[in-house]
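Input sequence (58 aa), recorded before submission:
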Amino acid sequence: MRRVVLERFPAGSPRGSWPAEEYAAQRMREGVPAEVVMDLASDAFLVVVRQREVRSGH
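Predicted structure, token format:
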């Protein structure tokens, strides 16, 4: 499975992960299965959607 990043939020924000959580909640209300993950390498909260990879039968 791969992930598509919808938005990035800096982890050093005074509000922590709240902006990312709020953004993900809004996407969920729109029917988008978004979730928040922490990217340690970039020190950011990412709002992502998981997508299944399509495999060809060849």
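Checked by second reader. Strands lie at 2-10, 34-39, 44-51.
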